[in-house]
Structures are given as C-alpha cells and as structure tokens.
Write a structure and sequence with these properties.
By secondary structure, the chain is of the alpha/beta class. The strands form 5 sheets. The chain has a 6-stranded antiparallel beta sheet with strand order 12-17-13-16-14-15, with no helix packed on it. Helix 3 packs parallel to helix 4 and helix 6 crosses helix 7. The relative contact order is 0.08.
Length: 393
C-alpha cells in the first residue's frame, strides 16, 4: 500500500469503536455520520474501548490482478511471488481440477486504479479484455460454474453489460452470473447467511420478471472475511461459529430455497486452518445425520399429497421440494398429520408460503402419526412436488 502523504488527510473518530466492525460497516459510518466519502483516499482511524487497538480505513483503489494479464502491469507479474512468474488463478484452477471441484471467478468491474476508468468507453473495453482472459485462458469452454460481478459501491457508474455478456456467452455461456445487469443469481441482501422468508426465485428487475435464486454469503468466523493473526487473531479465533449455529444458517438459507455461500479464509500459507476444517466437517456430518435418511418419502402433483409412514412414527420435521424446472407454483400451503380418521394441521416453526427448491419445516412439537399430508391452499398452476420427506431429527 503506497500512500501519497502530500494529498492524504487523516481523520480520527472520537470515542470508542467496536473492533468487530469490518471495513464496510466503518465505511457506512464515515458516509452517514461524518458526511465524508470513505473512498476518497483519506485515512480514517478508529480506536478500541481499551485504547490498545486501532483500525485504519483506507481505500487503495483495488484493481490488482492475480493472473498474468496483458492489460496492466498492476498484477502478479510485478510482485515478488515466484519472481513475477507466479499465477494464482492458474494454480487455483489446477487445484480445483485435481480434486474434481467446479470453480468460479470474482472480477469486480469497479477498478478505479486503472487509468482507463476515467474514460467510460476505454474502461469498458479494458474490463472486457480482462474478462475474456479469465474465461478463455484459464478454463475450457463452458467450464466456469459461477461469475461474481460485485461492484459494490460503483457510485452509479453504468457499465457496458451488453459487451460483457457477449464475452460471457462466447466463452462460458452456462456460467451462473451473480449480480450484473443480467443476473441469474442474486445477493440475498445481508451477509449473515440466512434468507428472509418467504423467498421467491422469480423477481422483478426493471419491470421484467427474471429467475434469480438468492445466494447467502457469510464468513465461518463471524464478522471476519479474512484470516487474522496477532492481536486480531484473538478476536478471529473466538468468532468461529459453532456447529449448531452453522446448521441453523443452513436450515434458514438452503432450507428457505436459497444457496449458502460459506466463506472459509485461507491462512497466509494458502491453507485452511485445522479448526476451520474440523468445523466444516462437523457441519457436513450434522446435516447428513439430520437429512440423509428420511422416515418416508414421496412425490407427486396436485393440491394434496399424502405421505404414509411404515408404522406410526414420531415426526418433527418435513422437507419439501418443488420441481423448479416447471417454476415455483406453490404460494401457500400447510402440513397435516393423520389422527384417527381425521387430518389435523401441524403447527410449524415458520410460515408455510414458498417452497421452491427446498423448504425445511420443523414442527413445534414432535407428533406420532401413521401419515402426513401436504395441502396447497394457493398456487399459480398445478403444484409439482419433486420430494416430500418426513424426519425425526
């Protein structure tokens, strides 16, 4: 980070600041309380309650490329990494291929480090060239799974998304697109890992309905997207979220029909910490324990769908899935259990409105019953239920 001290001004925030706050939250404070632009290149200094820690907010204009790009020298080729011959993107792709993992790229269009940024046409062509490099040099045709076009805080800048979409369609037409003018997946609206309910995949953008499922991003260490050591490492270690909390996030993201994007930060050695690995494995094990083996399962279409159990069993959860290749049709539903010759509505822990890809419904109390029934009260067309499963979790 090179700072031109002849132009930079330094601002001190009076009073104590919660050191758990990350740069985005501090930027909001600078904008709303100080009426300054946090992206001005000035320094904003915050102090902890015990006066032993400070946090400095400074924007260095980003734009550093982790691959061997032809578009700029502001990249790994100008770094000491492998004497300028390193290529982080190439190594990342190779590692994903080695372990059979699909991969994606994050390339924010907000690169004000580039001199071209002042010229809209020149910058759009510059960005399109970088996008083409990533999508053609580092992946086979249609190999990329997802592209993230964050651009958070682009200050109203309008990019040539038609040009960028042309590049995507040329090299990676099947890639999921996060944000942009043509998203196929969208930000859920928070970075806490849960999806507000009800959750709909079909949303309105500029007066047009588009299919854009929600993606829920959250760091496994609460408030921390990057690995920390030293004094910051103390706060970092104690914010590792519990297995119970992570399972709750899973049930309120995937269980609300969305995608969970759990951030696990590598260390400065490029590895994941053993504690984080252990916690992720525990999360997976608990999800499998709860949901791998249902008491019974069925599928079908229509406004009612019965699920008989092998014998009367104690049930405290059901998982529903629509066949979303036909859209999401259910608008309101209920779960019932058989009691004698009657059907009794179950009190669930959440509302029963949208289903979509998946809805996890927990019962207020376990109920012993020989059968369950899904009753759709409102739908846009005949409901098509891909899966209706009962559990005792």
């Amino acid at each position: 980070m090179n700072i031109d001290w002849t132009t930079v001004q330094v601002y001190l925030k009076p009073g104590a600041t919660d050191m758990r706050k990350q740069m985005y939250t501090l930027s909001v404070y600078v904008a709303e309380e100080m009426k300054h632009n946090a992206l001005s290149g000035n320094l904003y200094i915050f102090c902890s309650k015990n006066r032993k820690l400070i946090k400095v907010l400074y924007w260095d204009r980003n734009g550093f490329c982790l691959w061997q790009t032809d578009t700029t020298d502001y990249s790994v080729k100008s770094s000491p990494y492998k004497n300028g011959a390193g290529d982080v993107v190439a190594e990342f792709v190779a590692a994903c291929r080695k372990f059979g993992m699909r991969f994606g790229f994050y390339l924010s269009p907000w690169d004000r480090h580039a001199p071209e940024y002042a010229d809209k046409l020149a910058y759009d062509q510059y960005y399109a060239a970088q996008l083409a490099e990533l999508l053609s040099r580092y992946a086979d045709y249609n190999e990329v799974f997802e592209l993230w076009f964050d651009g958070a805080g682009s200050e109203g800048r309008v990019y040539d998304w038609d040009m960028f979409l042309g590049v995507i369609n040329q090299y990676q037409p099947g890639a999921v697109r996060f944000q942009s003018a043509y998203p196929t997946i969208r930000w859920v609206g928070n970075e806490k890992g849960y999806t507000p309910y009800p959750n709909w995949n079909l949303i309105s953008q500029d007066g047009t309905e588009i299919w854009a499922p929600a993606e829920c991003d959250v760091p496994i260490h609460l408030y921390h997207w990057f690995h920390h050591t030293g004094l910051w490492g103390i706060a970092y270690r104690i914010t590792l979220q519990s297995t119970k909390k992570l399972v709750d996030l899973y049930e309120k993201s995937v269980g609300h029909g969305a995608n969970l994007l759990l951030n696990i930060a590598p260390t400065t050695d490029g590895l994941f910490s053993k504690r984080d690995i252990k916690r992720v494995l525990a999360l997976g094990a608990e999800i499998r324990r709860r949901y791998d083996t249902p008491l019974a399962e069925t599928a079908g279409s229509g406004i009612t769908l019965e699920l008989p159990l092998p014998t009367p069993m104690s049930v405290n959860c059901v998982v529903l899935q629509e066949d979303i290749t036909e859209g999401e049709r259910v608008r309101k539903y209920s779960i019932e259990v058989k009691s004698g010759v009657n059907w009794v509505r179950v009190q669930t822990s959440e509302q029963t409105i949208s289903i979509g890809h998946k809805k996890i419904d927990k019962f207020a109390i376990p109920i012993t019953t020989p059968a369950l029934r899904l009753v759709v009260a409102e739908a846009t067309a005949e409901p098509i239920i891909r899966s209706f499963r009962a559990y005792q979790i």
